[in-house]
Amino acid sequence: MSKPLRIALTKGRLEKDTIGLLEQLGYDCTVVREKGRRLILPVTNGDLQFEVVLAKANDVITYVEHGVCDLGVVGKDTIMEMEGTFYELLDLGFGRCKFALAGKKGTDFYSGFGVKTIATKYPNVTRNFFETKGMDVDIVKIEGSVELAPLLELSNGIVDIVETGTTLKENGLEVFEDVCAISARMICNTVSMKLRQAEVETLISQMEQLLSDTAAQ
After folding, report:
1. What is the pLDDT of residue 53?
2. Measured between alpha carbons, how far is 32 from 49 in angstroms, rounded to an integer?
3. Mean pLDDT in residue range 121-147
4. Do the domains spanning 5-95+183-216 and 97-181 agree at the CATH topology level?
5. Which CATH number is 97-181 given?
6. Inter-CA distances, 155 with 63, 106, 128, 132, 176, Å
7. pLDDT at 56
8. Which of 10, 27, 43, 175 gives 14 a disulfide partner, CB atoms 3.0 to 4.6 angstroms apart?
């Protein structure tokens, strides 16, 4: 008997939303909900079984790329930043937010001819965005609250994830331009997609049907 499919979930909200989706499909996720400190957990649906691995977002991609997990659920933001080798199979429809270019309210960001400085936690996303505009920018990598950078005049703007915009507003910042929408995605190891195609496609088709039915309601 082949080993069960292994799915890496991004810990936190994406984990909870994915477990909710699986439960709607009839999977018993009790062990995951009562996980304690365990990090590899069984999920069952009758004779069907797979293992859930809980990990940080970047590690989800690493585990899937290296084949220790067949599938993974991770945000499009992490996919865009890490640019790994895997298949992106399905937009799961939750964890929705966006990348945006923002800065001090009332600033005309695109005026002048000097090279702009952009602070961000996502240098690859930022670089790719401005390359599409044909703009050269200096990118400063920030690990903490990126909103501080324009307030301290370290940068002309920031590229960051925006959900409600409340943090920007409360700090006198505003969105200059949306970069792209992001949400949770199901990814798959390239070898697993070939060797375990039937199992992977069964799960994906179940999810697609549920998401389609939910959207139609």
Report:
1. 96
2. 13
3. 96
4. yes
5. 3.40.190.10
6. 35, 15, 18, 20, 14
7. 96
8. 10
Q: How far apart are CA 91 and CA 76, in angstroms?
A: 9
- Relative to beta strand 48-55, strand 5-10 is parallel
- pLDDT, tens digit (0-9, with 9 covering 90-100), for 82-112: 988 999 999 999 999 999 999 999 999 988 8
In the beta sheet, which residues pair with residue 88?
A: 187
* Residue 72: how many other CB atoms lie within 10 Å: 28
What's the pLDDT at 211? 93
Residue ranges covered by each domain of the chain: 5-95+183-216, 97-181
pLDDT higher at 215 or 143? 143
- Range 5-95+183-216 has CATH code 3.90.1300.10: no
Q: Tell me how far apart the terminal alpha carbons of the chain are, to the nearest angstrom.
A: 39
Q: d(Cα 159, Cα 101) in Å, to the nearest integer?
A: 5
Q: How far apart are CA 130 and CA 106, in angstroms?
A: 21
C-alpha 130/C-alpha 178 separation (Å) is 12
| Residue (of 151, 153, 125, 127) closest to 139 by Cα position | 127
pLDDT of residue 49: 86
Question: What's residue 1's pLDDT?
Answer: 53
